[in-house]
From TrEMBL:
Lineage, top ranks: Bacteria, Pseudomonadati, Thermodesulfobacteriota, Candidatus Desulfofervidia, Candidatus Desulfofervidales
Entry annotated with the keyword Cell membrane: no
InterPro entries membership: HTH_IS21_transposase_type (IPR017894), Integrase_cat-core (IPR001584), IstA-like_C (IPR054353), RNaseH-like_sf (IPR012337), RNaseH_sf (IPR036397)
Record-linked Gene3D superfamilies: Homeodomain-like (1.10.10.60), Ribonuclease H-like superfamily/Ribonuclease H (3.30.420.10)
Keywords: DNA recombination, DNA-binding, Transposition
SUPFAM superfamilies per UniProt: Ribonuclease H-like (SSF53098)
GO MF assignments: DNA binding
Domain annotation HTH IS21-type: ranges: 5-67
Residues in Integrase catalytic domain copies: 112-285
Keyword DNA-binding found: yes
GO terms of biological process kind: DNA integration; DNA recombination; transposition
Protein name per UniProt: Transposase for insertion sequence element IS21
Pfam family, one: HTH_23
The organism of origin for this protein: Desulfofervidus auxilii
Entry similarity comment: Belongs to the transposase IS21/IS408/IS1162 family.
Amino acid sequence: MISMEAWVTIRYLRAQGRSIKGIARELGISKNTVRRALKANKPPHYQRPPRDNPQLIKLKEQIEEMLFEKEFIGTRILKEIQQIGYTGSKSAFYRFLSKLKAEKGNGKAVERFETPPGHQAQFDWSAYTVMIGGKLKRVIIFSFILSYSRRKHFFASLREDQLSCFEALEDSFHHFGGVPKEILVDNAAQFVISRVGHIIKWNPRFLEFCGHYRIKPVACKVKRPKTKGKVERPFYPLEQHFIKGREFESFEEFIKKLHEYERELDYVTHSTISLRPIDRFLKESSFLIPLPETPFISTKEIFRKVTSDCLISYDGNRYSVPWPYAGKHVWIRVSQGRYLKVFSQKGVLIATHTISENKGMSIINQKHYEGLRKRLPRTKKLLEEAFLEKFSEARSFLEGLVVQQKFNASYHLREILKLAEVYKKEDMHKAFSLAISYNTYSVNFIRGILEKEGELEEQRPTFTLRPLPRLKIKRELGFYNQFL
């Protein structure tokens, strides 16, 4: 601010015909200062700066801790201090905050582009270290944003491989009830094998996924992250408002709270479109492509054969599946890095388990055996009758079992009858004969023999063989000398 005397001098010299440049040189001030003085019809006067709110002064140490140590953003700090009694205005708070930090700006001007409804979604992910169950765990949060409505969907996982990306995308499609025409992704190995300029070599499995959902893949420009700005920017408020300074009892609670935060965002007016995303989505939803009837099943899925006792193996453990699938092939998929999902060959989800962190475990869901148990007798006498009715020639095995397993013969008989549901009768008799020869009467021995007969293997497709057409070809014998 210039003094009263300087203001008078500037206006006087200008009235004498002096140029703005000449006045600035003579008084040692800038040309802009001269211009402002000439435009001002009133002399400059001192204005006292606004005083800090006393409540903020008392909370200064806590605000500094949140700002500099915890690195909370302004809106998060304001929310925190309001919870402990701050009742002042937002403007007073932000004025106070500006005194505690030096604002830096290094952004470059970019052209903002908008997309029509249902046309595009943007997908990305970020890793965070989160306190879950008293332990620090690395959690991946995938972000899917519909570019038109700005509706967001977050998906948490303990892994960030390609299958996790596919699962996050599928979960987002089902969350919004449809698929956009194109998906904008970065150049990660999960999607892109190589890129030279505008020439992109896509990952074939990703193309297979896109083909299933009829969606066009688009890779953002290299070293131009703002191409995908609608996704990458939301990770910052997610970290500030949801991740930082919080602890969770379990991974399930983390997911629940993440979805609550997501729902809150649906009803917050977006600064760019000046509308709530949930309201704008009403227009966009009808433009989304309908979902296919079945989920994506890759040509490289993991297949397993279900054992006679309704179990499949994965990573050193065994997991139960519903008993009607015993002896059949199923395919499995790791979900969110924590759950094992089991699907029938038609793509129907038939079982879900939490993956055990230990090895050599059998993880059993008792409901998977309910239908089977109803079909079997409960008392020892009825079980013996059922066994002889099915295996009348194996009476000697039954007698040995009753003697050797005196206190739990019913259990062994019941389990053996379960095995008989899925194995051939002749295979059962072979196992009984071996048990007699080794004088070992137990369901574990019988099961072991039967499982050797049916090792886990991938199901191979069957082909119909057609006879080759016959051709009458006559050649001179000298023709065959070249093959000798």
